[in-house]
Amino acid sequence: MDISAALVGLVGNVAVLAAAAALTLPLQYKFRSLRGKVGLGILFGCLCLLVIKMPVEFASGAQFDTRAAPALMAGYIGGPISGLITMAIGAAARYSEGGTMALGGALSLVIYGSAGLAARALFKTLTWPLLSARALFALAAAGTIATLPAFFVDKGLAFGLAVLQQAGFMLVIGNMVGVPTLGLLIRVFQKSYEKSRRARDDAFITRLAMKAGRAGIWEYDPRTKTFTLDEIGAALMGADEARKGIAFDDLTAQLDQKDQKKLQSALQGACMSPTPFSVDLRTTDKLGLPVWLRFQGSCANPGDPDETKHLGILQDITSEVQTRQQIKKAAWTDHLTGLANRMVFDTLLEKNCTQDPRARPFNALLVLDVDNFKLINDNFGHAAGDAVLKRVAATLHEKAQPGDTPIRIGGDEFAFLCSCPTAQSLKQRAETIADAIAKPHQINGLYIPLDVSIGAIQITADQTSATETVLFADAALYAAKETQGTMVSVFDQDIEKKFVRRKRIENKLLQADFDTTFSLNYQPVVQMPEGRATGYEALLRWKCPDGTNVSPAEFIPIAESLGLIREIGAWVLKTAIKEALTWPGELRVAVNVSPHQIGTGHLASYVEMLLRESAFPAERLELEFTETVFMRSDHSTLEELARIRAMGIRLVLDDFGIGYSSLSYLDKFSFDKMKLDRSFVTDVTLNPTRAAIVASVVDLAARLDIDLVAEGVETLKDLHFLTGTGVKLGQGFYFARPMPAADLPLLKQPARNSAGS
């Protein structure tokens, strides 16, 4: 047989292998199962049978074919079960064919199968991919070498050598071509099948995801201006089934004109660019409920007018939009009152002040807070306090006109953005709101009187700072609080002057050197009628570096608002004790304490340290508190007061009678002394009501065993009346004005030598 005929036969064998390689596809993902391994063994066994029927015969009677490929691949790919089945089928088929090398031919199939199994184990150890070209050629070479002994089985060594000499090239070529061809084709088909399967899986998962996410597919033809929708997309647009050729106007009939133009503009723009677009639209479902849809897509073949079309997805984003709205509402709404919150206030006011004055939605700002709100919380409970805030919010909402925005800034502070043409109309508007809130309200079964203070400002064209606008409105609010009986104050030049002065005082306080600018004056508390001093009240004075004096009534509230009062109070205590150390031992020193200094425990600790370090007797120190100290925190305040009193320090209730609940505070805590406010002493001889009040307080103090000091004693008539009523201690200009420590008589008499002169 010539070489050309042999090669033709070889090509026929290889062609059969190529066709058979595709048959492995149904089994390629089942090799690990028993059924898959058996199926693969049968498949390759039948392939052996087929190529054995198509041999290349030589003159010596030897037959050659490509049986090595399926025999090697069976064990190599499928493992022992596949390999044994293929060996059995192939060996039986070859032996039944007969010929001079029937036994050797059958044995070669067993050798090939065994070589495939051995190579499988070896290449896995070497981490070679089983179907790589390198592994397949190595497998073919190993199988060829391993099968050589089969040539000598039938007729001995000489015959076998003669056959190899005559047709050995066919053995090598057949195996080196057949095995890689079958293996590589299997790999190609596997990759193709895997890619196809992944695409099907991805498409299936995508459809599941789109169905779960209520997303449909759409296609738009710009030439005919028609849409094609799948089932989900059609359902989202109100149709019962998938539809083709839906006109743009019909599809968008449920959209408002603005959304129709938005979608049309996006589609037209997509024709000019392959960039994807996304448009959110609002429509309604069959029940009339709002539904939000998102059109996403891009243009395919944008450069070819005949092939241009738009493809994309249509998704129901109603839940997303509603969640976004809920988050926005939570972020922009006060949870207690339902009004807009501080974030809205800052945003609206900033936008309002920075835009063209002619386009501003608001030209006026009101800021208000509830007077004595802490007292309401303390006396009626926090639930009542919350109810009060809700009532105020409801009133603001009721009084709001179209375009107005009522806001809760925080705590008991509210704001009201509105428009008023004049300052007078703004004041009238604020007074209307204040009057509506000030009516007694029944809250949780209790009638609670409410009062508010309102500061208002017109936002003029030259006002472009939101921060400055709020500061001016706050200044008007302070003015309203400071003026007796006034609930409303509109920012004007007088308030601006006070505001500017306040800011200057704030700056000076923040930079003040306490030791060089602060000093203490002392006013005596005397035994009446003889006028003997029992002690002195320390009164803080502040002289700025420029030589100007600032009244404590002016700078103390500012120091409290700046958070400086604790430092200033500590300086006063330390200085008063230091200077009182030089006085006669029977004289006491009294120091006023701000409500901002107590309630945390720091004051008690600081006083204890001062007394220990200075060796000043505790019984010579008096601390004076006004009733407002109890409006901050009852429990913590009472605890700290008790701690201070336990040191031996005398506690004084100052300005008794001018607060809301003076008697209730006497019941809450036992003071050593109380000071009758000067308002009851002034003109007491001319006012029978005041005289009766003084007599009642004298009786109350005697029953409670509390020392009573009358403040504001300025005339001899005052002195005679008070001593006649039973008041034993007095303080006022009649005896002496406040003076520096260096000017104190420090004897047993104050500046006025005789109370009767």
Total strands: the figure is 25
Structural class: alpha/beta
Q: What order do the strands of the largest sheet run in, or round the barrel if closed?
A: 16-17-19-20-21-22-23-24
Task: Provide mean pLDDT, rounded.
Answer: 83
Low-confidence spans: pLDDT under 50, at least 5 residues? 753-757
CATH class bucket of the largest domain? Alpha Beta
CATH architecture of the largest domain: Alpha-Beta Barrel
> Strand percentage, roughly?
15-25%
**Number of domains as seen in the coordinates:** 4
Q: The CATH topology of the largest domain, please? A: TIM Barrel
Comma- or semicolon-separated keywords:
Alpha-Beta Plaits; Arp2/3 complex 21 kDa subunit ARPC3; 51% helix; Beta-Lactamase; 757 residues; six-stranded antiparallel beta sheet; eight-stranded mixed beta barrel
Explained architecture:
The protein is of the alpha/beta class and 757 residues long. The protein folds into 4 domains: 3-193, Arp2/3 complex 21 kDa subunit ARPC3 (Orthogonal Bundle), CATH 1.10.1760; 215-324, Beta-Lactamase (2-Layer Sandwich); 333-491, 2-Layer Sandwich (Alpha-Beta Plaits); 519-743, EAL domain (TIM Barrel, Alpha-Beta Barrel). Helices cover 51% and strands 18% of the residues. It has 26 helices and 25 strands. The strands form 5 sheets. It has an 8-stranded mixed beta barrel with strand order 16-17-19-20-21-22-23-24. Strands 5-4-3-8-7-6 form a 6-stranded antiparallel beta sheet, sandwiched between helices. The chain has a 5-stranded mixed beta sheet with strand order 10-11-9-14-15, with helices on both faces. A hairpin with a 5-residue loop joins β6 (277-284) and β7. α2 packs antiparallel against α3 (68-78), α6 (133-146) packs antiparallel against α7 and α21 packs parallel to α22. The chain is elongated. The termini are far apart. It is a multi-pass membrane protein. Residues 361-493 form the GGDEF domain. GO terms for molecular function: phosphorelay sensor kinase activity.
